[in-house]
Q: What sequence folds into this?
């Protein structure tokens, strides 16, 4: 997957300023042929502006967009070999499903029979019933509209497809289904997909690589594994969801101390982060211990509450003012009473230290 | 009686008295003997025969023709203005809106007399030219062209605002999507903007056409009775001629012609389909 193929899209110092404020701030990025790259960030992080520049709907203030070695900054959207699936989908409400899908082909002067052949082929790929060809797009369900929008974007065989949070308006169950479906379509078509979302969970499910965006900058780029396992700053670690985070300083080689818990902490293996910052331990790496020696680090606290998360159970353990989050698979549930004193711990290798940004 | 009907009763009574009754009275009078003033005479088609035998069709054609011309000219003027108000002017568009709305606060007749003073011989325009350049130009008043000008001027807001509304209903993303799929600006216009802004346009056209067919003041004030529109004929029948049944028959004729045209237009342009409701 990532890295095996050549670079299809290269962004060099890409910047967009709106009345002095940089919405997109000097971004360098290489997107590889055939990968599903997701840009994830909170609202206002500039991800939509970035995508609009890539699609040709916004002109960059500075920097270059290079598609297969060719600078495309000044090529308007209608002459770029790329296509966008909008958040609102932006289907043509006055046209039928078939006419929506065929739009780009009609524009390019493809004859009627060939157009219809292509539309039906795409409808089959996206599992839309053939009878829908003549149906108004206002009379199909949200999930079906999603598929029509994707089929419409695929029709003229663009080199890159951009997605602007197309699933954000759908309910949870449908979103989960379509996330997987989209990944399947990506596999089938082998096209380059660039996807933006504010949900890292969504990004994790689908992406080959993820870029985390904050205030117009890409703060970390990596595979879902890298982003999850080795976030490079506090922002990225927190963005993923529940996480245990302690402010720490190095007190001796390999030893850390935190003002929030008593005692010293065994630091993660060397060259794993700055000497001062935040210790990050994912909830699934924290264990309930029957003896303090069972893990490199341990703390004693009180079991405050537990939450069922479906296949997992989450526990909250209070250690003084600090709250630790522990997660267990359901079949490994911890048998304990609320308010019971518990010892929890983690191994140094399962923790990392990140900078406070 | 259901509670819904009870609640609706005041409105129903109001509509019956306020709208249906006068209309029925006019229709009733059109079948009364000429120059009678009651509705209890022997019904007759005499008034319609009179109209058929007269030259009334000339007035009717003038009214329809002027109204149609007004609509066409208004489309040409208002489309670019509406486009500007929705897509170009930005925050200035509210100022433009105010400029077009303010004249509506003044009565139509007063505004037309204003134009009269402006265009009249030795008036604002010609008087000024004469004073400065010493040339004596012919006034454009009392011509057919100035009647059309007056109608376009008076009915402009009734075309502009529905059109602006229709155009603002075209989502920006839909236009961008068409562009992104490879459409040129012209293709975006033809394939997306025009069909999607059609409801506003159709409503504007129907509104201005129906209003303009009944226009009378423009021909009287600016046109100096160069042209007698059908509404003028109706007025004469009801007033000077004291022939209510003839006036009523003319009114019914006008209503039937306009209603037929409007219904034909509505069948051709299905508003629901434009709005994507079907």
A:
């Amino acid at each position: 997957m990532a890295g095996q193929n050549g670079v299809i899209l290269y962004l060099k110092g890409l910047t967009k300023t709106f009345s002095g404020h940089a919405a997109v701030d000097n971004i360098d990025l290489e997107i590889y042929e055939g990968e599903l790259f997701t840009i994830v960030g909170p609202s206002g992080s500039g991800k939509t502006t970035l995508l609009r520049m890539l699609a040709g709907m916004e002109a960059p203030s500075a920097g270059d967009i290079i598609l297969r070695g060719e600078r495309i900054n000044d090529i308007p959207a209608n002459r770029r070999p790329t296509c966008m699936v909008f958040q609102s989908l932006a289907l043509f409400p006055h046209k039928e499903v078939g006419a929506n899908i065929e739009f780009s082909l009609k524009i390019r002067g493809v004859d009627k029979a060939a157009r219809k052949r292509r539309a039906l082929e795409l409808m089959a790929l996206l599992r839309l019933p053939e009878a829908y060809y003549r149906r108004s797009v206002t009379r199909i369900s949200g999930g079906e509209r999603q598929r029509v929008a994707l089929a419409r974007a695929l029709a003229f065989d663009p080199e890159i497809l951009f997605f602007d949070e197309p699933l954000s308006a759908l309910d949870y169950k449908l979103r989960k289904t379509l996330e997987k479906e989209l990944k399947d379509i990506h596999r089938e078509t082998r096209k380059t997909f660039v996807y933006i979302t504010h949900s890292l969970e969504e990004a994790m499910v689908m992406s080959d690589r993820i870029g985390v965006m904050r205030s117009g900058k890409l703060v970390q780029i990596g595979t879902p594994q890298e982003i999850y396992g080795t976030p490079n700053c506090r922002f990225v670690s927190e963005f993923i969801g529940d996480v245990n985070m302690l402010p720490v300083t190095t007190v001796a080689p390999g030893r850390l101390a935190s003002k929030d818990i008593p005692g010293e902490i065994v630091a993660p293996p060397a060259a794993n982060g700055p000497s001062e910052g935040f210790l990050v331990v994912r909830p699934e790496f924290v264990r309930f211990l029957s003896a303090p020696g069972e893990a490199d680090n341990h703390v004693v606290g009180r079991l405050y509450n537990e939450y069922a998360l479906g296949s997992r159970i989450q526990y909250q353990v209070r250690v003084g003012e600090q709250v630790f989050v522990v997660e267990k698979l359901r079949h490994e549930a911890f048998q304990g009473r609320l308010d019971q004193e518990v010892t929890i711990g983690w191994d140094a290798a399962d923790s990392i230290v990140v900078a406070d940004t | 009686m259901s509670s819904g009907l009870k609640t609706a009763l005041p409105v129903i009574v109001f509509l019956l008295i306020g709208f249906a009754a006068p209309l029925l009275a006019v229709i009733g009078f059109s079948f009364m003997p000429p120059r009678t003033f009651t509705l209890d005479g022997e019904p007759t088609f005499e008034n319609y025969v009179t109209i058929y035998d007269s030259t009334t069709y000339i007035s009717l054609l003038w009214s329809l023709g002027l109204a149609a011309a007004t609509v066409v000219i208004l489309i040409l003027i208002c489309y670019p203005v509406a486009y500007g108000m929705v897509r170009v002017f930005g925050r200035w568009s509210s100022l433009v809106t105010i400029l077009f709305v303010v004249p509506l606060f003044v009565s139509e007749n007063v505004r037309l007399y204003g134009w009269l003073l402006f265009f009249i011989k030795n008036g604002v325009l010609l008087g000024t030219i004469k004073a400065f350049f010493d040339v004596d130009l012919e006034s454009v008043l009392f011509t057919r062209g100035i009647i059309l000008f007056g109608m376009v001027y008076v009915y402009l807001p009734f075309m502009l605002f529905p059109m602006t509304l229709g155009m603002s209903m075209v989502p920006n993303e839909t236009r961008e999507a068409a562009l992104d799929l490879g459409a040129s600006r012209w293709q975006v216009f033809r394939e997306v903007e025009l069909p999607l802004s059609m409801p506003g346009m159709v409503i504007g056209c129907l509104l201005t056409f129906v209003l303009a067919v009944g226009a009378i003041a423009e021909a009287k004030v600016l046109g100096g009775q160069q042209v007698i529109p059908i509404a003028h004929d109706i007025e004469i029948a009801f007033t000077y001629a004291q022939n209510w049944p003839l006036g009523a028959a003319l009114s019914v004729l006008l209503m039937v012609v306009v209603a037929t045209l409007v219904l034909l237009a509505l069948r051709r342009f299905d508003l629901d389909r434009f709005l994507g409701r079907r």
Q: What stands out?
A: Chain B has one domain: 56-275. The mean pLDDT of chain B is 90. The radius of gyration of chain B is 23 Å. Chain B has 13 helices and no strands.
